[in-house]
Amino acid sequence: MNKKLSLLFVGLLMSSMLLIACGGNNNAEEGSESNSNDNNTGNNTEVNEDNMNDPEAAADAEFTIRAGIGLNNEHPQYKGLEKFKEIVEEQTDGAIHVETYHSGQLGDDRSMMEALQLGSQEVTVPSTAPIANFISEFSIFDFPFLFPNSDVADEVLDGEVGQKFLDMLDDQNLKGLAYWENGFRDLTNSDREVATVEDFEGLTIRTMENDLHLDAFRAMGANPTPMAFTELFTALQQGTVDGQENPFATIYLEGFYEVQDYVSDTHHIYSPFVFMMSKSFYDSLPDDYQEIVDSAALEAGEYQRELNREANDQYLEELIEEGMTFTEVTDEAREEMREVIEPVIEEYAAQLDQSLVDEVFQAIEDAE
Ligand code: KDG
Description:
The protein is of the alpha/beta class. Helices cover 48% and strands 15% of the residues.
């Protein structure tokens, strides 16, 4: 090939790469359908146009918040984002415009947190598990069987201890504004009924990207694989893993019953969500707008927790109706699981500041 021809070829290649890159970005900004859950049930991937990018409202606004989550637009987590949008836009008379994205349209928990740090996204609401990759202290909240019930979780998280953890996010250029709720995690798989520790033997289970989760499942004899939520449905469908663990709401609303046969109420971990904002963006807001987003994150969180809780039992019923076999896990079996995992908890606790660990345990005891 002569020099001119090869230059032309390189030029064409570069412009088509640029076009592909721009196309992808525009799709996200216009709130196009998620590509992460395309194999999922049809009703779960619909985009609620009302809440997506409205170019006129965005043009009139002083500030735009792009808020993204991993779960789909049927989930209470997304309803919470819609509530946040409603409050903020109303109270600022549209000076802050909120765009809401679901189903990993803007990325998974980790990449969205990184985008917040870089200032290329403003809000995300990850589980605490991936936050531990940024701030190891957050692994405390993922100690299996830590919170006995959601009332205790609320009291601890919404109190002084919870605030202490939110403040730790500052150093990561993240602003923690509130705790929302993912919920008690339960196990599904396509291989067998799971009622006791022994039943975990050899099961390949997708976990969140968190070392403590991996070690806890290893301790129970399972074969855990960390994976972003955006890849999970396909992994279950293709049999890359036998199972996964998530609250009933997620199992039902993400259509996992289509590719999983067994569900057990292991309730092994209570997962909080953390509503967070890019700190540099938060700092750029005038004081009165900061107050509005602070209280909107809390108010939307209360609403989100309520929705999450009121439908939880209903979701289990729906899973059974969809044909899943439900296995009830007894308190004794849960206690046995806790005992098997205890050395893992001790190992992780030993790596953290002892007084902080004590403080969390004390706050739980006080709230009980
Ligand atoms: O929007 C939150 C999700 O991205 C994720 O945190 C959900 O629990 C979850 C999981 O298993 O990844």
